[in-house]
Each structure stands twice: as C-alpha cells, then as structure tokens.
Amino acid sequence: MATTLKQTCSRIFLVCVIAVAIQVMFFSPLPDIPQPSSSLPFPSNSKIQEVIKLGQGFLKQPEAVAVDKTGVLYTATRDGWIKKLFRNGTWEDWWKIDDTDGLLGLTATATGGVIVCDADKVMFADDVIESSDGTLYFSIASTKFGLHDWSLDVVEAIPHGQLLKYRCLKYWLKGDLKGQIEIFIDNLPGGPDNINLPPDGSFWIALIEIFPSKMRFLYTSRASRYLIGAFPKLSQWVIAPHKKAMVVNVGSDGKIVRGFDDPTGKVMGSVTSALEFEGHLYLGTLYNDFIGKLPLPT
Ligand SMILES: *[C@@H]1O[C@H](CO)[C@@H](O)[C@H](O)[C@H]1NC(C)=O
C-alpha cells in the first residue's frame, strides 16, 4: 500500500517537473544574449545627497524637467499633471493631461509650447527633443514591451531600445554622415535614461541602476532567464530600479567629464534626468516626490 502511494506521488511529481520544464524550454520568448561587458569606472562622491528639494510632496515621481525661454520650469508627474515652477518659487498645477501614470520626458519648444511623452499612448515614448528646424525627435525605450512590462526588456537585454541602451548612440541627421549611426559612449556604469544638452555642447546623461550587480546571475544563468521568460511576473520582483542615483556629464568626444551620485539613494534615488540651467542641475526622479536642485561646482 505505502509503496504504491509513494510511487503514485513520485510519478505526479515527475509529471509536474516535466510540465514546468516544457513550459520553460518551449514557451519562453527569450533568445540567447551576449555576456555583459564591464562598465567604465565611476568613483562615488555622494554629491547628489546635497540637493535642494523643490516642490517636495507636491510632485509624484517627476521623471524629467524642461525650462522655457522665460526661465519657467516644467515637469510631468505620475498622476497625469504638467506642473510649473515660476521664478518666484511658486508651483502651479498647470495642465492635467489625463489619469495616466505614463508621462515621461518633456521639452519646451521654441514657439512656447510644451511637448510631453505619454508612454501609454505612444508605445513607451520616453523622451522628446526639438531640433533647431522645429522637428521633434522621440526616443522609444522599448518597441517590444510596454511601460508596465519594461523589466522583461531588461531581462531580454537585446537592443529593443531604439536609441538608448547601456550605451548611447549618435545618429547623424545631416552632413556627409547623414543617416549613419555610431556609438557615442559605450559601457556606461548604468542604464542611460534622459539626455539633456547644456549650453557648452556636452551632454548630461542620467543613469539608472536597473540591474544591481547581485542580479548578474540572471545574465549568466540560462535557466533563470528561461524561467523569467516563461513566467514574466517573476521579473517584476527580481528587477526593480535600484535606488542608486547617478548622472554623468559627457563631452562631445564621448568621454565622461564629471559625474555625481547618491550611492544608496538615501536623499535622492533613481534619478532619471539632469537639466542644466543657470549654473544648477535640476534632477528628475522615478522614486522621490521632489525635483532636486544641485549647484554645479565651477
Ligand atoms: C509668482 O509668479 C506667478 C506668475 O507671475 C504669479 O501667478 C504668482 O502669484 C507669484 N507668486 C508669488 C508668491 O508672488
């Protein structure tokens, strides 16, 4: 009797294991990926911990900041608002877009308008910029997975991001190299998010630590990637944006000039954008409820 029961149980167990294995091996959408390369060294300086907090409590996860010709700052918040900060320090609920949590990058145009990316309307539109001839350029963070499934895109780690990945690319809009794409900077010490252009011709790039180093096994172990591909919900708790905040200033030659961080996200975490304006950096975030203002050392 006991032996038959034991045999039945072990058969059921075996069938379950085979069923899970089949699910994992054959219904997983993940292709093979190259191994991650080591990133550029970046010494921590905790400078972001010195930020002045603007609009604290009033701004739900303000991802990005834009400034218009008159010096008014704009940010889009995760409760669907564009809010503005006058020079006198007063905040205003300026424009309610929608009951969306998909508002990401924004820009102030030469004609005095504000354009904001709504990742729920345009599939994962992440950031927007206006060129000198008035053309708008959007970056799409992922063409395959939407905003709420972005952790899967990270696991997959093949370049579905059209403009941005752990490297930044340069796309020539005009001149002899028109239409060509080259690597602008590679092996960044984090996942690049929004890029802003200060007046000196360099670039401010916010880096998110999407992938804490203790999660590296996900890249090296094929089984764990298959498991996440087969059961996508797992990725939501395996991969969350780590709180570490980091921004780097990259020269037009693609070299890091300087950078600031908050290694633990103690004061400000998951910084998604850095806008330079009148000697200060204005930092947007996925994590906090304020904009960080950091005086730039001269
Ligand atoms: C700040 O400026 C705005 C726009 O000019 C104005 O509406 C607001 O009342 C001002 N706030 C204060 C406290 O002066």
TrEMBL record:
Cellular component terms (Gene Ontology): endomembrane system
Residue stretches spanning the membrane: 12-30
Annotated EC: 4.3.3.2
One term of GO molecular function: hydrolase activity
Entry-linked InterPro entries: 6-blade_b-propeller_TolB-like (IPR011042)
Class of enzymatic activity (EC top level): lyase
Keywords of the record: Lyase, Membrane, Transmembrane, Transmembrane helix
Listed Pfam families: SSL_N
Protein name (database record): Putative alkaloid synthase/Surface mucin Hemomucin
Organism: Handroanthus impetiginosus
